Amino acid sequence: MTPTVALSGVFWGPARQPDILHDLSFAVAQGEVLAICGANGAGKSSLLRLLYRHQAPRKGTVQLMGRDLWQMKAPEAARVVAAVLQEQPTDFALTARQIVGLGRLPHRKGFGPGQTDTAMVEASLRRMDLTAFADRAFGTLSGGERQRVMVARALAQEPQVIVLDEPTNHLDIRHQLELLALLRGLGLTVITTLHDLTLAAEFADRVMILHQGRIIADAPPDQALSEAIIAQAFNVAAHVDRSGPAPRFSFQLHGH
């Protein structure tokens, strides 16, 4: 099986500055859920930007479904990868339905939305439990509702891969768990940054830990989230309690 996403020997850094990401190679299979964890500045957002065709690698290749991402036109890439980012639309006057409708742009044929587009938008709104909010202006929604609108917009794109940057940030605990369960149930390849290690451990098939732009672990959660790796990645003393159904993490500054 061709992996949905494959990076090979990827380096990246901002123009005329040193590399931030160093020699990243990994592949993600169809339907696999990968959580990317690491301290601030480890390179997590930079890595995501390579996946949704926002920036090209300095060296190495990023492949989608076996094809070089930069040999694809932008709309074609957008039919494969949808991104849910921290930045949200600034046009607060648009309704939730209109914003979700923007996810159909890569599929548009001719002028205006067709029946398929309308049906996909409605299905995405339903899936994210947003039907009641569909005609409300985006600006009137809570942070959690807005986040669900952004995920619905990504689903309306009908992607194979959904890339999310800290998707649980604005959500209360119940909505965090609901969103992650929903993403798991989509059958899509999901690549997400998560700062909450407990959520990463419960929800991901695989956890990749970045440290100073390098991959220091890429394994199932119970292997990747070991005390030694957490200590290296976050510069803290870590204790993992594995006695319950899900691991519990506690942290201390070294020497305290």
TrEMBL record:
<dbReference type="InterPro" id="IPR017871">
    <property type="entry name" value="ABC_transporter-like_CS"/>
</dbReference>
<keyword id="KW-0547">Nucleotide-binding</keyword>
<dbReference type="InterPro" id="IPR003439">
    <property type="entry name" value="ABC_transporter-like_ATP-bd"/>
</dbReference>
<dbReference type="GO" id="GO:0005524">
    <property type="term" value="F:ATP binding"/>
</dbReference>
<dbReference type="GO" id="GO:0016887">
    <property type="term" value="F:ATP hydrolysis activity"/>
</dbReference>
<dbReference type="InterPro" id="IPR003593">
    <property type="entry name" value="AAA+_ATPase"/>
</dbReference>
<keyword id="KW-0813">Transport</keyword>
<dbReference type="Pfam" id="PF00005">
    <property type="entry name" value="ABC_tran"/>
</dbReference>
<protein>
    <submittedName>
        <fullName>ABC transporter ATP-binding protein</fullName>
    </submittedName>
</protein>
<dbReference type="InterPro" id="IPR027417">
    <property type="entry name" value="P-loop_NTPase"/>
</dbReference>
<comment type="similarity">
    <text>Belongs to the ABC transporter superfamily.</text>
</comment>
<keyword id="KW-0067">ATP-binding</keyword>
<feature type="domain" description="ABC transporter">
    <location>
        <begin position="5"/>
        <end position="237"/>
    </location>
</feature>
